Amino acid sequence: MAIAKYTSAKGLYEYEDANSGFFVEDAALIENQQTLAIVKDVTTITCVDDKNKDTSQTSNGGTLADTGELIGDYFYLVAADGSVFYVWYDDAQNKATDPNTANALGAGFTGIEVVLSDDGADNAATVAQKTAYAIDADANFFAQHTGAVITVTPISPGYAIHGDTSVTNKALIESVIPASRTATNGAGTVTVFTIAHAQASKHTSSMSITNYGATSFSCATDMVHAVSNSLAYSTTMALADGSYSGQKKFLYQSAAGAQTTDGILITGLFANAAGAAKTSILFNAVNEFIMLKWNGASWSEMAKAGVTFP
Fold this sequence. Notes:
Helix content is 6%, strand content 39%. With 310 residues, the protein is mainly β. The chain folds into three domains: 1-29, no CATH class; 42-198, no CATH class; 209-305, Jelly Rolls, CATH 2.60.120.
């Protein structure tokens, strides 16, 4: 007798069997629906003037409670995957020593060096510019600067430190990110760096795209590269390989926020309509959409609106 059967691998087909009827196997009757509101941590750093003390002053506990030149001082940043970075200051004469020599700050921590002018010649805006350029050059972060203020976000969504007990030396890192501090030197009171941290609502692990069903996402952060001032992808997320040939995946940008370019970059193995191999898909406007099918080696384009392959 004829049987009609639907499977996730083959779709709908007919075959002969002793039984009869219609069977659904290994396939959801309603596609999985995933919604991602993409939010990132934002660290805001307000810099101060460098001071000429004619000395390679060391840092005061890493909190930038400095009474003179900034060289030797540092502060922490954490990427969305929990990797710890420290941003530290030197000058053209290399008077400072890397504060993480012999893992004094933490094993596996990565340094981002900022080279300031000799003898405290840089004002707060110049300190901010040089710091933003150095941070922005690292592939884990986007940095912007306006005057003396730097804004930093990680390249991936979600938070890394707060609420994440898996981060190495979490307590140490949090202890050296002050809301604000002042310090006193021989000439009076000096205001030091103000570092504020706006926590994203979800951890980065909850921002993963499923490799099945439909995913709609919105993005509320659009960064600009400090060095080039060009718009950067506001987030990068990976689409894993499919589980079987014929598996379908739908991606849709449901909301764009107020920014002019949303720049949601999806990485993975793709093939465009012409069959050319691609490694990423770019969404940069609301209501953009793509339907993909796993062919055993890559996600093949079936239909799309507005989405591009960079």
